[in-house]
Structures are given as structure tokens and as C-alpha cells.
Task: structure prediction
Amino acid sequence: MLSRIDAVLIIIDIQGNLAQTMYDKENLFANAVKLIKGFKVFNLPIILTEQIPQKLGQTIPVISQELNGIVPIAKETFSCWDDRNFTEQLEGLRRRHIVLTGIESHICVYQTALDLIQNRYNVYLATDAVSSRTPGNRQVGISAIKSAGAHLTSTEMVLFELLRTATDPKFKDIFKIVK
Result:
């Protein structure tokens, strides 16, 4: 079960013109923002990556404006795990529950999920907050990540699983995000 004491949100490569070519991009962006806002309500860590930003561009404004100065990790590898800066930052948090959002589900999200699972992390894929350029590749990525052992979830499932009870003082804040 996803736990506040162990959770980390990883946002993979929602950047530049590539983000604008994603299948169902409006829902992708909206759900990524909800996850960010929810993790901020719970004061949980967030890691942001960008794939070769000098070529593909920066994180899109709708995402970056929610991140209050979180510095993106620029990478060239498809798997975030293969980037030393990413691995050091993640391991430094000493948390084992990873919530993934980002693009593309069949490339960077998929390869990252596999490496995290192989390194004994519990991966929670927010299926409504990942995408690819085509619906087919999006679905293949999700299916492959599930087959590798990740937990399939959704934005609201993540936020309410972290919340656990309607009596939590943060309930109103989370409800405002998802309504």
C-alpha cells in the first residue's frame, strides 16, 4: 500500500514540443498537475526530469509553474535510473514507493519503471498521468510496466490512498484538487 512516509513523485520529461504531441495531452497535463498539488499538500518529495532539454525544450509551463523551484534533472538516458544525478537524488530520499507520471509511457517511463522494480522499489504507475504519441504505444507501455510488477493506479487513487481517511485534516485540500 502506498504510504506517505515512503512516497516520492517522479515526473518524467513532460517538456517542450514533444509534450504537445502526446495522445490525450489535456488529461495527461491536468492529472500530472493534480499529483503535484497533492504531493505538495502532503509535503512529499518530487523529482523532475528532462530529456536533453537543450534539444527538446524545458518542462511545459503548466507543470513547471506548480513546482516552486524544483530543479529538473537533465538526462540523456531513457531510463532515469541510468542517470547518476537522478539515482543519487532518489536514493538520498530513502523512500521506496515511487509514483510515476510522464512521457513517453513506452520509452522513458517504461525503462525507468523496469529499473526501479529491479532495484526493489515499489512502482505505482498513474495510468491517467502517462502518455505516448499514439494510444497504442501508450497502452503497450502501461501493459509492459504492469507485467514487470508495477501497481496500476490513477491520480485520484494515489491521492486518496495517501489520504487514507476523510477525517484527515488534509481531506479538504485534496478534495479541492480532485473535484
